[in-house]
């Protein structure tokens, strides 16, 4: 195994490979009316089929849009596509808009929050019933929390440079991504401090649940030093996952524990059962219905085909990319994320891939990393906050400054490959937040609310309306508009084709889907 410095030198000698880094974004956002009330209307047909449109779909709720980019080898290309999709959506919803805040808008009664619908094909029904299970297990309000998922992959040429010698390319890639995930786990608290933008929630969201929040105003609750209540355990009442500790030391152990979670019954879910009044209410009674139910800040991923299980795909073909799931929506950006954040993410994730990444002790679980993350989302801006690094206390400010300095060589490498100095500038721009917590997005959001006298709901609505209007003010070209309409039309036709071609009853399909999960060797 080469040293970090040697790997950095080798990367500098492989600039064309650095240009082969790919990234993609999945950006969620609630549909709301012009008063900021959750839309209970069906997914707009003009946006196509939520089942088959690769660019515009829904997440847990029918009202929770998910706008998905393809993979891009440049930040400009990535954000240009995301911008076009937002402009298309904004222009197709005359009475609605996208809520540009991670914490939900005004929600109707729990029973009236619509679960995402994907049609009557077996594939569509599997997605819908899975979401019914999420509603039973966690409550529908929790399904309305939104974020930005950042997908990232390195070309095989780079894994050849920084990976372990003497193993197959597939194993080298998988081991490299798991090492990246371990380093991400150690340092992801930094992302929450720098980019967390959900320090407050509307009172209506808590719905009588016990909580430690303080009153900001008559309609808003908050924690004074929080960065991202979205990523806290706020409102999380489910216990089944609380003791679930997946191991990122090796893919085999990770998959073995994931397999156990999706095949082991949980008593509370057994009591609920899979059917109520003759209808499916969850796919099974196990700790996890399927692999994606595991809530994590980052996931190893592999694309799958219809009826293929994610864990089986990972076991057979290895890790293909990673999905970062902890980024809040940026309320100041019409598309929920800025170019500066994206460039910082690339430097940060490259750093996580290249730096030494020792295995986690304690059966693959790192308590300090878990605790640091949990502390920063709730108290990240607390003066003098102390974290734990390698079993020793260190101030957040000192560790944050150290990490920014260690990230800079990776930003420089990306700038050398792509030209310019924008990655280095993106890293340098974070220094002011480390030095002054009032510069963080979470602090700025609270300050704007105080200055304007607006509640979180009213402030977020004002921002969302401004973003909607700004997106509409830049109509797509006729060719781009036609492209999006064609994609929507084709997706509706594809959903109908799937529905017409299904001959298997749903119960048999579910049984076959469960049987497709193979125990890791």
UniProtKB/TrEMBL annotation:
Gene name linked to the record: gshA
EC number(s) given by UniProt:
6.3.2.2
The residue range of the signal peptide is none
* Classification of source organism: Bacteria, Pseudomonadati, Pseudomonadota, Betaproteobacteria, Burkholderiales
Source species of the chain: Pollutimonas bauzanensis
All residue ranges annotated as the Glutamate--cysteine ligase domain in the record: 13-363
Is this entry keyworded Ligase?
Answer: yes
Question: Which class of enzymes does this protein belong to?
Answer: ligase
One term under GO cellular component: cytosol
- State the pathway, as annotated in the record: Sulfur metabolism; glutathione biosynthesis; glutathione from L-cysteine and L-glutamate: step 1/2
InterPro entries assigned? Gln_synth/guanido_kin_cat_dom, Glu_cys_ligase, Glut_cys_ligase
Q: What is this protein called?
A: Glutamate--cysteine ligase
Q: List the NCBIfam families hit by this protein, alphabetically.
A: glu_cys_ligase
Q: Which UniProt keywords apply?
A: ATP-binding, Glutathione biosynthesis, Ligase, Nucleotide-binding
Superkingdom classification of source: Bacteria
* Family to which this protein belongs: Belongs to the glutamate--cysteine ligase type 1 family. Type 1 subfamily.
Please give the catalytic activity noted in the UniProt record. L-cysteine + L-glutamate + ATP = gamma-L-glutamyl-L-cysteine + ADP + phosphate + H(+)
Q: Which GO terms describe its biological process?
A: glutathione biosynthetic process
One annotated GO molecular function is:
ATP binding
